[in-house]
Amino acid sequence: MHTTDATVPNVKATEPIQKNLTEREVKPAEHYLDSGYPSADLITAAAGQGITMVTPLLADHSPQAKAAEGFDKSAFQIDWKARQVRCPEGSTSAGWYPVTQHGRDAIVIDFARADCRPCPSREKCTSSVRGTRMPTLRPRELHERTAATRAEQDTDSWRSKYALRAGVEGTLNQALDVTGVRRARYRSLPKVRVQHTFSATALNVVRLHAWWTTHPLRKPRTSRLERLSYRLTA
Description:
This protein is about 45% helix and about 10% strand. Helix 2 packs across helix 6 and helix 8 packs across helix 9. The longest helix is centred in the last third of the chain and has 25 residues. The two termini are about 45 Å apart.
């Protein structure tokens, strides 16, 4: 169990959880997570520690990608050695500026107005008043890993693999139903952590007992309408 203040986003919990698992010598080779936990930085850092994060990385949020028309970042060719970017119409960037945005390393690309303003595809590329496109890239390793991860998660094999996470969601639902873990019965974070730890322990005991005595994980589910029909026929 990993309990935090309610205002802490899931992505901030990923690294502490993996660190805790590593310290307890149960580091996962594959770590299945929902879309709230990953980032390009975290996926790259985890890979360096031998952990493959099986998780849907959020898609490109640029206006072009959201609209599914025009030129998104994947349409631009990047020459990392020459520190230049070529647009889909063949123009080469005029500026390459390493910056820090929100505490993260990034690279801002600038195209010349003389190339962008007369471009026949400018409306597909940018709607800025300045009239030029200024895409932002992450450092090379992060950029390439992001592109590879997004390409992989569009395959049927990745979707089949990620389907295993359904078991995690089932465990969470059982924790809510059996222990009422969603509601904090105490005040202060340390006390809530203790509550969550006891809830997790109780859930493990319940599941072990059910597994040894019945077959709960194989029990077919029936709708209320089906259960009603059984009673009527009986």
